[in-house]
Amino acid sequence: MQPNEIETLVKNCRSFEIDHDPEGWPAIQMQEISDLCSAVEQAIPALDILQARLEQGAEIKQQNEQWWLFDKNGDGITYGNTVRGLIVNLIFCDC
Q1: Whole-prediction pTM value?
Q2: How many helices (H) and strands (E) does the chain have?
């Protein structure tokens, strides 16, 4: 799942709040709930991966309007347009 897909998924799930109060029973597609659960499950390990990288000397820096994670040698590991995007990309990078 890519960052823009996660943003779309959250937006779609949030749209159910408009027509239903918190205790209501909205009619939703189960696939969206499954995708949302998968995204959350993947995000938690990304925070652990980020912490491990930072403990190894990596740094987060903003460069050219993007947020980058650089290893201790200054080589780029991954990036995102936002810090959230950087963390999401960390899930999917082969690094």
Answers
A1: 0.61
A2: 3, 3
